[in-house]
TrEMBL record:
<protein>
    <recommendedName>
        <fullName>Probable transcriptional regulatory protein MTR64_08585</fullName>
    </recommendedName>
</protein>
<feature type="domain" description="TACO1/YebC-like N-terminal">
    <location>
        <begin position="5"/>
        <end position="75"/>
    </location>
</feature>
<dbReference type="InterPro" id="IPR048300">
    <property type="entry name" value="TACO1_YebC-like_2nd/3rd_dom"/>
</dbReference>
<dbReference type="GO" id="GO:0003677">
    <property type="term" value="F:DNA binding"/>
</dbReference>
<keyword id="KW-0805">Transcription regulation</keyword>
<keyword id="KW-0963">Cytoplasm</keyword>
<dbReference type="InterPro" id="IPR029072">
    <property type="entry name" value="YebC-like"/>
</dbReference>
<feature type="domain" description="TACO1/YebC-like second and third">
    <location>
        <begin position="81"/>
        <end position="242"/>
    </location>
</feature>
<dbReference type="InterPro" id="IPR017856">
    <property type="entry name" value="Integrase-like_N"/>
</dbReference>
<feature type="compositionally biased region" description="Basic residues">
    <location>
        <begin position="1"/>
        <end position="14"/>
    </location>
</feature>
<comment type="similarity">
    <text>Belongs to the TACO1 family.</text>
</comment>
<dbReference type="InterPro" id="IPR049083">
    <property type="entry name" value="TACO1_YebC_N"/>
</dbReference>
<dbReference type="Pfam" id="PF20772">
    <property type="entry name" value="TACO1_YebC_N"/>
</dbReference>
<dbReference type="InterPro" id="IPR026564">
    <property type="entry name" value="Transcrip_reg_TACO1-like_dom3"/>
</dbReference>
<keyword id="KW-0804">Transcription</keyword>
<dbReference type="InterPro" id="IPR002876">
    <property type="entry name" value="Transcrip_reg_TACO1-like"/>
</dbReference>
<feature type="region of interest" description="Disordered">
    <location>
        <begin position="1"/>
        <end position="26"/>
    </location>
</feature>
Length: 254
């Protein structure tokens, strides 16, 4: 178990969701509906649904919207979404994994391929980059739940494998704790952590890179355009990457 003091968001810039609240709500709704359809429509009996509902609450999604997304699954009038994964390389050889929920594979594949090709990237075959990542469970808390020692201690007690903390530096970067666990123990560890730290902001399966690539200003600018373009697509749920961008470069990019 290691506690790292600084952690850069490897998915995409924090705050990007704030500008796209309605798009974010539609993505959260889609995940809730899929989760409810795959298991019980009761969050207490369905870990994936519970995680989806918690993620929606963390983004201040109204209760009515959450319930509507659950009801949609049980009424059977929802679209048939399937989970699809795309892998490719962004500018500077950065490895990216794109996870989507779609009711039209052709549309999503075309959109993802276009986003890569227009922003200095190449979409690869399945398995092209995922060998450079570990499939793990990720539990996220805001920095406000406590300092690094408190969270590290709680994580060890709960049976987590690793903790990465960024205590933030103000409103622009409020900070977060990322707690990594094995896929099999994700919901068990999350339940234990809830007893000491309260409800998590996110509980999900994640791709964690084995090695991170430092990205310079020129590459970072194009890379962020690619990540944002992918993130803007309604079908794309999450973009994972093995890049690390320094605070200095992020400030220059604004």
């Amino acid at each position: 178990m290691a506690g790292h003091s600084k952690f850069k968001n490897i998915m995409h810039r924090k705050g990007a969701q704030d500008k796209k609240r309605s798009a974010q709500f539609s993505k959260l709704s889609r995940e809730i509906t899929v989760a409810a359809k795959m298991g019980m429509p009761d969050p207490d009996m369905n870990p994936r649904l519970r995680a989806a509902v918690n993620a929606a609450k963390a983004q201040s999604m109204p209760k009515d919207n959450i319930q509507r997304a659950i009801d949609k699954a049980s009424k059977g009038d929802s679209e048939n979404y399937e989970e699809v994964r795309y892998e490719g390389y962004g500018p500077g050889g950065v490895a990216l994994i794109v996870e989507a929920l779609t009711d039209n594979r052709n549309r999503t594949a075309t959109n993802v391929r276009t986003a890569f090709s227009k922003n200095g990237g190449n979409l690869g075959a399945s398995g092209a980059v995922s060998h450079g990542f570990e499939r793990l469970g990720l539990i996220e808390y805001p920095a406000s739940v406590g300092d690094e020692d408190k969270v590290l201690e709680a994580a060890i007690e709960a049976g987590a494998d690793d903790v990465e903390s960024d205590m933030g530096d103000g409103d622009e970067n409020p900070g977060s704790h990322q707690i990594w666990v094995s896929v099999d123990s994700l919901h068990e560890v999350a339940a234990e952590l809830e007893k000491t730290l309260g409800e998590a902001e996110g509980v999900k399966l994640a791709w964690r890179p084995n090695l991170k690539v430092d990205v310079d200003e020129g590459t970072a600018s194009t890379l962020m355009k690619l990540v944002d373009t992918l993130d803007d697509d309604d079908d794309v749920q999450t973009v994972w990457g093995n890049y690390e961008i320094s605070d200095e470069v992020m400030e220059k990019l604004g």
